[in-house]
Amino acid sequence: MRRILATITVLVAVLLGLPATAQAAANELGGGSDLFALGGPSGRCSASFAATSGGGTGYLIAGPSCAMSVGTLLYSGNDVLVGPVASVQDGTVLVEVTNTTDWKLVAFVPFLGLDPTINGSTEAPVGGTVCLLSKTTGMSCGSITAKNQTVHYPEGSLTGLTRTTICLEPGGVAYISGDQAQGVPIGGSGCISYFRPINQVLAAYGLGLLTG
After folding, report:
1. 48: domain range?
2. Does 212 reside within a domain?
3. d(C-alpha 212, C-alpha 179), whole Å
4. pLDDT tens digits for range 82-110
């Protein structure tokens, strides 16, 4: 739908004799968007989901690959400022979108031919199907095998995670089930992977998931 609207925008601009360079799709920011710090590590990380506060402030929720010091400015696209890292906790990262001039916050941006619609965050049950959206493999699906799991890392232990049968490789963006957001990729080994349930993150930060 977003691509259709962008095409219509260009056609209208052409018919009116206006410049067609300011396409809305070019400035969309949301789940699936790449994030990076200028002058930082060469690797980029990806936002998992977009959310808003009660006051209307926009945020991106990301996984541990985006973990940087609070206050670090993150960018996307062609080195366009997004905003600062607002919090890092429990394996997730919260990025405040302060540059609302250059970016329009949307639920999800297309990549690798994927353009998922996020309509909510109803949790899939144990035994239910869940899919991982990935910048390297596209979409891989499996099942939820357990919830409220504790995983130990050298940096410490993370509790409250959901375990799946999906092989987690570099490039994992978000777990979904149908059109429902499920969680943020945390880690895994072999074909066992874990995610932080998105509803936990939203409750911890007092945010509402951006849908549509």
Report:
1. 2-108
2. no
3. 10
4. 999 999 999 999 999 999 999 999 999 99
